[in-house]
């Protein structure tokens, strides 16, 4: 039976593809875990609070990178979230407007856009004029990367609010601004928050847009006007160093980054399953 | 125009402005090198940095070649597997436990790319170097295997790593359109007494546009990926047919060279023109992908 | 003076003319029913009276509507909607707000009451809507925990709290079970003593039970309008007769 044989082969193909995808993916998570955990254990709490040691010297930690990541994600959110939410509101509220239609396509394209280009752009318009890499420049780049995620999620969440609630609100004599901010956005809250968190999780792991904006620094002055490190940036540079203890620290930092990412991403993803 | 619209306008204009300004910045900064070299910046493979401005000459053909080479490897590996996994998850996995397969895929699609990078450098590249040795020793006369490279940093490493990175994204797109096939077609196809293979073949032809769009968008991702690739590709100005040769991609070239570019007169402009090329490829590929999806009823 | 006067009203969505010249006079403090088969334009007519129809893009309105002598197209739309309350086919209290806030929110926004006064307005409105006894112990609970009938009465309370002159009801019992629907109809009987109620229904029986006046709308035109007894006992138009006896619908 040729027909039956073809079918068998086909099912084998499906199984093999599943294994071929799942295996490397789990291998990556597993490798980061197995290489990162012993490092974090060995360095102890110092790994989170200490600074980078000299080459081939024991101890130390990645505190400046953790600080940089938190600082830049925070500032990026301050800039990016209001902008993105308002843009999302516009697209959702005026869906047939020409600008709206163009913005929707633009946001989808921005989401897939090479992030290194965002870094170069911010370098050209901010780093070059100010004469220095800075955490602020890094934050601008991250804000731009974050924007399409937050805006698109906001738009979709607002459009999923049943029309009857908006009509009910307008029928009470409320103005558009009130209806949007007190009724529609509040009902859509879960979707909007999901967008914010996904945007933040995304930029917390970004490396490329930071290379030419935040610069990188092994020590942090804490100032937003000075170059600053970030966890992904540190991993990127530590890997390229020839020292064994730097590779070790890179693995530890990768583990920390993975934990941060999973801690934000998994709860969001599971809450999507439930609803 | 109502007041609320006017209130929202600035933020929408900012979103627009960013993209337009970006295009402007890349174009304006490329002018210097275009004036000097013309279109040759994209068609020659020379990288001559010099303190003397007249002696500088830049051509990024190697990076363009590497970008297309690695992305093509990635797509060739990823596409059949993505389709297979999409069908596996949709048809062979019961609905109740489907999410347990989808969640890890989604996690991997969003995972910070630097984690792929560190895995690539310390785990993938050493294993690839074993593969290179094996094939080179036996098949060196075939151009594809004709480069000896004991380090493992190569087009192949970059292509394989990219394939792993884009597969979760590609398979999600294909799975979503596959699951969205209206039930009436699905029932009609199965009612004809076909085997699973035959039925799936018909259903796949139904979502062909979505597969093409997925391919384009995945290609766009592969082209734009920077750090993971720059860590494993070997960063060499090289145009070589062999999978095992080290090379550059446009984005890894930018990541690698911009750090010291400002020491030279023309190099920043050359790198911006590389960025402009990446910009254009990204825009065209993504736009085409989105148009196909939209025509077909998605996005 | 009539509560609502409609003259030569035409409403179009893009190319589709939904109302093709409607003239109606609605007296004050009665229940006025607009009945007709689905798609006849009755919801559109109702939504034009508080200009909610303008939320749809590409809507064109011609003709005139006067509320107690004043053109509704010349007043501020938010003031109009405050004076013309509306209850919808699908009970739509705001799901993210408490029972109390559902009533109090628009009262605060429209500046109808302040501070302690708001509590009194809320209590008054909930009593008017015959809901107070059922919810007074749990005003802080979310509105979406109520039953369908309670939700609908909450929506009525929400509208009443703004002290409207006219109350529009768009098939308010269509999505309720018979017992809950009965309660709403009883409530209408009470409310029409003080308010002008315009109710849209596809059920002639409901129109006969609650209304003093009935208009029969068919394919965007008023076929017949008059006192309830006349329409049901001595319809002048053949279409009206067919409709009230259940032969078209």
Task: Give keywords.
heterotrimer, A: 275 residues, mainly alpha, MetI-like fold, 12 helices, 77% helix, C: 249 residues, Rossmann fold, 4-stranded antiparallel β-sheet, 10 helices, 36% helix
CATH topology call of chain B? MetI-like fold
CATH architecture of the domain at 65-230 in chain A: Orthogonal Bundle
Strand content of chain B: under 5%
**Rounded mean pLDDT score of chain A:** 90
Q: Decide which structural class fits the backbone of chain B.
A: mainly alpha
| Helix content estimate of chain B | over 70%
In whole angstroms, the N-to-C terminal distance of chain B is: 28 Å
Largest interface: A-B, 91 and 85 residues
| CATH homologous superfamily title of chain B | MetI-like
Q: How many helical elements of chain A?
A: 12
Helix content of chain A: over 70%
Give the SSE string of chain B. Answer: HHEEHHHHHHHHHH
Radius of gyration of chain A: 23 Å
Question: What percent of residues of chain A are in strands?
Answer: under 5%
Anisotropy-based shape of chain B? globular
**CATH level 4 superfamily of the domain at 65-230 in chain A:** MetI-like
The count of DSSP E runs of length 2 or more, i.e. the number of strands of chain A, is 0
Secondary structure tally: strands of chain B: 2
Average pLDDT value of chain B? 87
Biggest sheet descriptor of chain A: none
Structure report:
The complex is a heterotrimer of chains A (about 280), B (about 300) and C (about 250). Chain A is an all-alpha fold and about 280 residues long. Chain A has a domain at about 65-230: MetI-like fold. Chain A has 12 helices and no strands. In chain A, α3 (about 65-95) crosses α11, α4 packs across α6 and α9 (about 190-205) runs antiparallel to α12. The termini of chain A are far apart. The model of chain A has no long low-confidence stretch (mean pLDDT about 90). Chain B has helices at about 5-35, 40-45, 60-90, 95-110, 115-140, 155-180, 185-190, 195-205, 210-225, 225-230, 250-260, 265-295, and strands at about 45-50, 55-60. In chain B, α9 (about 210-225) packs antiparallel against α12 (about 265-295) and α11 (about 250-260) packs antiparallel against α12. A two-stranded antiparallel ribbon of chain B has the order 1-2. With about 300 residues, chain B is mainly alpha-helical. Chain B is about 75% helix and about 0% strand. The radius of gyration of chain B is 23 Å and the shape is globular. Chain B has a single domain (about 5-295), classed as Orthogonal Bundle (MetI-like fold), CATH 1.10.3720. By secondary structure, chain C is α/β, with parallel strands linked by helices. Chain C has a single domain (about 1-245), classed as 3-Layer(aba) Sandwich (Rossmann fold), CATH 3.40.50.300. Chain C is about 35% helix and about 25% strand. Chain C has 10 helices and 10 strands. A 6-stranded mixed beta sheet of chain C has the order 6-7-8-3-9-10, sandwiched between helices. In chain C, strands 2-1-4-5 form a 4-stranded antiparallel beta sheet, with helices on one face. In chain C, β7 (about 165-170), α7 and β8 (about 195-200) form a beta-alpha-beta unit. The longest helix of chain C has 14 residues, at about 180-190. The model of chain C has no long low-confidence stretch (mean pLDDT about 90). Classes of the chains: A mainly alpha (about 280), B mainly alpha (about 300), C alpha/beta (about 250). The interface of A and C includes residues 162, 168, 170, 178 and 183 of A.
